[in-house]
């Protein structure tokens, strides 16, 4: 009933399903406002004035008021993105400082133990070993989801897949601590991939913890926009490269990028990169805000046009090298998985594999040992700075102490620069692939970046040796710049491994110069083209190895694809079931195939698809109907001792069967055959005399609990005999069971009895879709479940007999070429 006026119901009237409002929403609001205005002031404040806050609460109210003004004037998105960039810049700078101090501590410890070579070796190996083992144990205990790069998981999440525990606070702690420990061990590992994961976690937690952002980013689409911006911030804060960071995040995480998110990524990345460089200027005695790897390459005429051929060759070689790197990484992982015993042993003893790898790499990089021949004492940051240097190493001339240190690292007395660079490329290549298989937070960008820079430097130094005076173009002679070749090689190899073009932009922001922009872009494009035909990207390879639920990219189609029809690619020879399928067909289908679902069609001729049935449903159906505890044979009414040949099997019909069989001299007309009554006929339909003995005895009726036992057990156990009244014969089933018992006692054994397969149509079961199964409820025991299921499906089959369109194939006993067929 409708409520008139402006009562509390506001014109609400109750209907059958749901209520409705009879008044307009505007009148509701106006009425409510008038009611609030008419209330006395005592409802709000007894004194007529609000009590002013004092102390801390006064400052808190001012902060809240200022926050509301900023959000109203600027907007929540701008504040959120700026706050995200600032937080990530602080975290990146702090982590870099901790990692740098850990690496310097290893070098300091090595130099302090110079009086003993053995102690130096033990300290060098033990230092890396302890950091790797700590990272392994901490990550496993706190959050195993922090293992690995993080970019493959973010690529999957941005596709709409929900990965549990990947964006939680526990994962953030494990990622930060594990990454600092793994990079502090000086193993060839990177930071970029894990930091993208860290930025995504921070963005998620920031949207949940801050109340002002909670309602904004609870929507699924807004959360994906937030994560896309966080990926850009993660790359930008790693190398202080906002432009390359945005482009890199788009290439490696998104297949289809919404243009509306472009400004979000740029704004947040610029905020993060700016704060990151300001912190370096304030706390690291930098002269100004400069690039991370500052270079002094020649900018007037950096390269000759003929050198573009060499740069293209670097692109081809880096494309092949990137594909080989991805293949090597995947083969190592598959090798450990293929050997089941070794894999199980390493999983049970999870510190053995990281410990072996840490000891192996630390031993090879030991400076007085093999490490002196490929600059094993240098960290990744220092190695990149020296590889990008603007001096030519082959001349052997140094103008200052810094250049002398560079030549001392890369030109040891026992070898030359070419051997050192070649060994550095080879050792960094396979050690980077091996280190990325460890169960710790680690990235791949920095190792392949260093490897590519060394390869480019090797080509540049070779070119400077072949053309010591430079390349002549007309009357102008241009000197070779080996540092430019190192920049091109670093961009090409890292681009081929990650399958991105934005690495050419990242190297410009890292070096602070764009003198070699054209050679770098050419080499990166060629390297990507070569690697595309050989291997997937490194992150896609990890997705396949981890079997993440990720949809692959749509491949480019040729013009012939427009003429391809579905029938050309579909699987035509499929397994299916019909309404006329028997249990034998069903058993053969499940035995010879392993599909999880099967199509259901009307008939094999029409092939009209009606639906699908799960495999476990069919297996349960077979178990219920073909289990050995069913009572398949019942007694029947009195019939003639001599019958004519039985007719063809009839349809399902409801029949009643008494417990005994009486003799009757008058034969009956042929009757349709049900399933559960037995008599004996030969193959041609003639009479078979089944007199067993003059003494007619039958076993007593078995109890209900005996039906739960297996059939062969009931045939062996001794039955209880009782005398029949005069003129009566035992039923067929009881006579057969009596013979089986006598056979077990070796008293009378002249026949061979065994069972044939029971074949029944499925239509009576499949059409009963709206029936409730009593055995689906929880039972006290498995025996009750079996018995109730058997009874249910037998009753269901009896009720559906008239609906069946297929004749039953009866249950048959074989008795010395004679058949006991089920008759009514």
UniProtKB/TrEMBL annotation:
Compositional bias (Polar residues): 655-668
Stretches for region Disordered: 634-675
Q: Which UniProt keywords apply?
A: CBS domain, Chloride, Chloride channel, Ion channel, Ion transport, Membrane, Repeat, Transmembrane, Transmembrane helix, Transport, Voltage-gated channel
A molecular function annotated in GO for this UniProt entry is:
voltage-gated chloride channel activity
The UniProt entry, under Pfam families, shows: Voltage_CLC
What name has this protein been given in UniProt?
Answer: Channel 2 isoform X4
Per UniProt, subcellular location reads as:
Membrane
One Gene Ontology cellular component: plasma membrane
* Membrane topology note: Multi-pass membrane protein
Q: Tell me where the transmembrane regions lie.
A: 78-99, 119-142, 226-250, 262-283, 308-330, 351-370, 417-435, 442-460, 480-502, 514-534
Source domain of life is Eukaryota
Q: What PANTHER family does the record point to?
A: CHLORIDE CHANNEL PROTEIN 2
Show the InterPro entries listed in the entry: CBS_dom_sf, Cl-channel_core, Cl_channel_volt-gated, ClC
Signal peptide limits: none
**UniProt-listed CDD domains:** ClC_1_like (cd03683)
């Amino acid at each position: 009933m409708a409520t008139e006026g402006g009562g509390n119901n506001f014109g609400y009237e109750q209907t059958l399903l749901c209520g409705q409002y009879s008044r307009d929403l505007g009148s509701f609001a106006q009425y409510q406002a008038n009611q609030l205005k008419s209330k006395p002031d005592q409802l709000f404040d007894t004194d007529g004035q609000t009590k002013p806050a004092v102390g801390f609460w006064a400052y808190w109210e001012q902060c809240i008021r200022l926050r509301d003004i900023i959000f109203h004037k600027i907007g929540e998105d701008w504040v959120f993105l700026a706050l995200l960039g600032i937080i990530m810049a602080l975290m990146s700078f702090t982590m870099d400082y901790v990692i740098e101090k850990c690496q310097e501590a290893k070098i300091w410890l090595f130099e302090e133990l110079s009086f003993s070579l053995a102690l130096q070796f033990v300290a060098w190996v033990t230092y890396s070993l302890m950091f790797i083992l700590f990272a392994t144990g901490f990550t496993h205990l706190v959050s195993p989801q922090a293992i690995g790069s993080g970019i493959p998981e973010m690529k999957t999440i941005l596709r709409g897949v929900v990965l549990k525990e990947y964006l939680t606070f526990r994962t953030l702690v494990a990622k930060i601590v594990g990454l600092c420990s793994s990079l502090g061990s000086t193993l060839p590992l990177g930071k970029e991939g894990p930091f993208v994961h860290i930025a995504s976690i921070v963005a998620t937690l920031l949207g949940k913890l801050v109340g002002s952002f909670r309602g904004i980013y609870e929507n699924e689409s807004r959360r994906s926009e937030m994560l896309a911006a966080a990926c850009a911030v993660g790359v930008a804060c790693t190398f202080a490269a906002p432009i390359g960071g945005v482009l890199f995040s788009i290439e490696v995480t998104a297949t289809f990028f919404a243009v509306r998110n472009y400004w979000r990524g740029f704004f947040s990345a610029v905020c993060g990169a700016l704060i990151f460089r300001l912190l370096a200027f304030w706390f690291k005695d930098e002269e100004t805000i400069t690039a991370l790897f500052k270079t002094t390459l020649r900018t007037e005429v950096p390269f000759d046009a003929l050198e573009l051929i060499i740069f293209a060759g670097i692109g081809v070689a880096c494309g092949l090298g990137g594909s080989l790197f991805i293949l090597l990484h995947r083969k190592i992982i598959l090798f450990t998985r293929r050997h089941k015993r070794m894999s199980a042993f390493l999983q049970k003893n999870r510190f053995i594999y990281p410990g072996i790898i840490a000891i192996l790499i630390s031993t090879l990089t030991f400076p007085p040992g093999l490490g002196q021949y490929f600059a094993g004492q240098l960290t990744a940051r220092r190695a990149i700075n020296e590889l990008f240097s603007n001096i030519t190493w082959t001349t052997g001339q140094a103008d200052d102490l810094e250049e002398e240190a560079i030549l001392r690292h890369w030109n040891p007395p026992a070898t030359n620069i070419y051997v050192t660079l070649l060994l550095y490329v080879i050792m960094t290549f396979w050690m980077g692939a091996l280190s990325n298989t460890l169960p710790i937070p680690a990235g791949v960008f920095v190792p392949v970046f260093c490897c590519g820079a060394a390869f480019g430097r090797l080509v540049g130094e070779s070119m400077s040796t072949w053309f010591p005076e430079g390349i002549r173009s007309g009357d102008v002679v241009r000197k070779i710049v080996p540092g430019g070749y190192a920049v091109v090689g670093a961009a090409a190899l890292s681009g081929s491994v990650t399958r991105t073009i934005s690495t050419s932009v990242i190297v410009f922001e890292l070096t602070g110069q764009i003198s070699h922009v054209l050679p770098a872009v050419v080499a990166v494009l060629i390297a990507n083209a070569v690697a595309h035909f050989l291997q997937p990207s490194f992150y896609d390879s990890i997705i396949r190895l981890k079997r993440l639920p990720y949809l692959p990219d749509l491949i480019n189609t040729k013009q012939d694809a427009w003429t391809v029809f579905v029938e050309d690619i579909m699987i035509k020879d499929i397994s299916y079931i019909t309404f006329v399928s028997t249990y034998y067909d069903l058993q053969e289908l499940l035995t010879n195939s392993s599909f999880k679902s099967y199509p259901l069609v009307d008939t094999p001729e029409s092939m009209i698809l009606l639906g699908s049935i799960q495999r476990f449903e069919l297996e349960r159906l077979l178990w219920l109907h073909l289990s050995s505890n069913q009572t398949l044979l019942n007694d029947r009414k009195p019939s003639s001792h001599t019958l004519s040949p039985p007719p063809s099997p009839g349809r399902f019909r409801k029949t009643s069967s008494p417990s005994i069989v009486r003799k009757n001299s008058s034969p009956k007309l042929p009757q349709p055959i049900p399933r559960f009554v037995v008599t004996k006929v030969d193959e041609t339909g003639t009479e078979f005399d089944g007199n067993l003995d003059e003494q007619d005895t039958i076993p007593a009726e078995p109890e209900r609990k005996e039906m739960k036992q297996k059939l062969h057990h009931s045939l062996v156990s001794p039955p209880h005999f009782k005398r029949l009244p005069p003129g009566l014969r035992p039923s067929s089933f009881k006579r057969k069971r009596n013979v089986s018992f006598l056979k077990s006692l070796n008293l009378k054994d002249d026949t061979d009895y065994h069972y044939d397969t029971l074949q029944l149509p499925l239509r009576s079961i499949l059409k009963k879709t709206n029936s409730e199964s009593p055995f689906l409820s929880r039972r006290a025991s498995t025996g009750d479940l079996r018995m109730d299921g058997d009874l249910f499906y037998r009753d269901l089959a009896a009720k559906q007999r008239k609906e069946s369109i297929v004749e039953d194939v009866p249950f048959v006993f074989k008795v010395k070429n004679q058949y006991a067929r089920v008759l009514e």
